[in-house]
Amino acid sequence: MKSHHITGILWIIMVAVICYVTARSFLSMHQTEALHPSHFLTTQNTLSAYFSGLKDSPGDTDVFVFESQNPGGTLLILGGTHPNEPAGYITAILLVENLGISQGKVIIIPRSNNSGFTHSDPQEGNPQRFAIEIPGGERAFRYGSRLTNPIHQWPDPVLYVNPSGQRLSGTESRNLNRCYPGRERGFLTEKIAYGIMALIKKEKVDLAVDLHEAAPEYPVINAIVFHENSAELAALASMKLQTQDIEIRLEASPPNLRGLSHREWGDSAQVKAILLETANASHGRLKGRPTPSLILDGKDKNYVKAAKLGRLFVPFDEKGIPLRQRVSRHLAALKALVASLEELHPELCIKLENIPSAAELQKAGIGTFLKGQK
Amino acid sequence: MQIIYHIIVFYLTVHFIWYMFKEKKFWNQLSAAIVLIMLLLRLLLIK
User: Is the CB of residue A283 less than 8 Å from the CB of residue A213?
Assistant: First the structure.
């Protein structure tokens, strides 16, 4: 055997070892975190129960239903539409694990784009996970991608014409919040959107809220984005938040921006449609090194500098915008929306219980309200 | 579509392995090995 054949064999062994280690790391992202619903949970379902086209697909996801004996309105909460926006899905998970209900019905989907949780955005250097300290240990959560995993949906079209007729770049075919109202026989992401629409119609949802985050340099930030059928509701909720010293801006859903939850839920299902945004430094283009602490603490010196230069749409100082603050903002906005819904439509009253206040979250941290241990 | 993708990646993988054993220069072999890592992960649809 010649010497270059021996080195060739050695390289093959090295390739096999690196592939094994790398593959294990990539495949660990496909393991779903266990959730521990509160004892008020009525039913745990999957999205495929509403649209069978998702059965046994990577787009199927858990649906948690909390229903009271007392009739009232129905609220749908979506987290994880974009799995790289942790305040959205951590808020949803916190609700699943704590929520009590004494009137009406609440449906929560914490990982709306389940496929997006199975991979990270290429070339971003994002951590795969971040850990939240809980009593007696810590609990890890995946930090996924904005888009569906290309392993599950491939190839991207050059130009994507979404179900509402809007022309977008090809990668947006994997963005759940561009695919509404979905297609029964479309791409996987369109099927997820179709399943969520089927749920909204079947459960006769009155108010649907999509939880998001955005970069501090993005203009639609710390905002309630509302469909025109929810303008009064959003305005009332905004006033309630301002009385709690929570500044939130109102953004009307542009009628010509198609395929988004706050547009198509309202148009296709006549549901009151709201999207909430908080400011996440780990999501932005100006951020420094993306680390789990950037996700949790939200501190970044680049953003401090950008704020001093007046380049941001939110205040940003050395204290940063930590996850607990972003989650408490989402929770406060949800409570304000539900209270406003009751004021405007008393027959749609939803009584939520056991939701931590902003002050409790600030003081005790998110982990105090999360169960289990990893 | 997935079968076509697999065929293309498999074809390239075999060629890279063949090239690696045929090539006598150490650094050229290493270059082929590095590319092979990505091809194998793609072949196994691991992301």
Answer: yes
Partners of A150 on chain B (C-beta within 8 Å) are: 47
Q: Confidence class of residue A374 from pLDDT cuts 50, 70 and 90?
A: very low
**Domains of chain A (ranges plus CATH)?**
31-369 (3.40.630)
Is residue B21's pLDDT more than 50? yes
pLDDT tens per residue, range A161-185? 999 999 999 999 999 999 999 999 9
Domain coordinates in residue numbering, chain B: 2-43
Given a contact cutoff of 8 angstroms between Cβ atoms, the answer to whether A17 and A105 are in contact is no
Q: Cα–Cα–Cα angle for A30, A31, A32, nearest 5°?
A: 110
Q: What is the average pLDDT score of chain A?
A: 96
For range A10-27, the mean pLDDT: 96
- Give the helix ranges, DSSP H, for chain A: 3-28, 86-98, 188-202, 231-243, 261-269, 292-297, 301-308, 323-344, 358-364
Q: What are phi and psi of B37, to 5 degrees?
A: -55, -50
Within an 8 Å CB–CB cutoff, is residue A154 touching chain B? Answer: yes
Using alpha carbons, select from A204, A197, A328 the residue that is nearest to residue A268. Answer: A197
Q: pTM for the complete prediction? A: 0.95
Choose the closest CB to B33 out of A15, A22, A154: A15
Residue A4 in contact with partner chain B when CB distance is under 8 A: yes
Region B18-24 average pLDDT = 91
Question: What are φ and ψ of residue A42, in 5° steps?
Answer: -95, -50
Which of A343, A334, A352, A340 is CA-nearest to residue A68? Answer: A352
Predicted local confidence at residue B30, as pLDDT: 93
